[in-house]
Amino acid sequence: MKIIICDDEEKQINELSTLLRKWLKDRNLTAQISCYNSAESLLFAYEDDKSVDILLLDIQMGGMDGVSLAKTIRQSDKGVQIIFISGYTEYILDGYDVEALHYLLKPILQDKLFTILDKALEKLDYNERAIFINHNGENIRIPLHEIRYLEVLHNYASIHAAETYTIKKPLKEIEAELGEAFFRTGRSYIVNLRHVRKTSKREVHMSCGGVVPLSRGLYGPFNQAIIERL
Predict the structure, then answer these.
(1) Residue among 28, 44, 36, 34 nearest 6 (CA)
(2) Interior CA angle at 202 toward 200 and 207, to 5°?
(3) What sign for the dihedral angle of Cα 142, 146, 152, 153?
(4) How do 32-36 and 2-6 pair as beta strands?
(5) By the 8 A CB rule, do 78 and 143 touch?
(6) Is 195 helix (H, G, I), strand (E, B) or coil?
(7) pTM higher than 0.70 for the full model?
(8) Interval 89-103: pLDDT, tens
(9) What SS3 class is residue 54?
(10) Which domains does the chain carry?
(11) 106: nearest Cα among 27, 38, 18, 7
(12) CA-to-CA distance for 160 and 157, rounded, in angstroms?
């Protein structure tokens, strides 16, 4: 798990870091905590590595504000849990625009922060697990729940999620990163069982409108997988 703090006050960063380490220790969790003192420095780092699970954002900062930063990050990551931090209440409504998890007022109380972090953890479990790919020179995080199905053609795999990403990687390697909600319907396709709309003995119809072939002899195991895994 990766947690990021962005605040232009060093004292606030230190206090949040201390509370985060205590929360992690109390929950027997491990995480990478990264701290930034401006929205610009965080955004620069984010362009190289978009793997973030929980984002603690101050709203009022010199230069780019936290809400604008959150809107930029939300465009490429629908699963990150955003927690706004501010000393003022007038910005609360801005959180709805980026589907923020919560809005915390300074000074931060330990019990309140821990409750919100617990809620974020529940949503990550797994709003959730994700795979990371390099697509056109960018590192992209794709939550598993967003993936409808995957298909391979020659040495290229296409991942059909909120968007479609085609990468040069064997399907078998990607399959190893997927969870139990995924089922290989044949040599060239893997489907997310949670996105199956209907099935016949030879085809699987997905919620996105895609139709995936089902290999001979897999109709029974496929339906059993839906019963057992969902």
Answers:
(1) 36
(2) 55
(3) negative
(4) parallel
(5) yes
(6) helix
(7) no
(8) 666 666 666 778 888
(9) strand
(10) 2-127 (3.40.50.2300), 142-229 (2.40.50.1020)
(11) 7
(12) 10
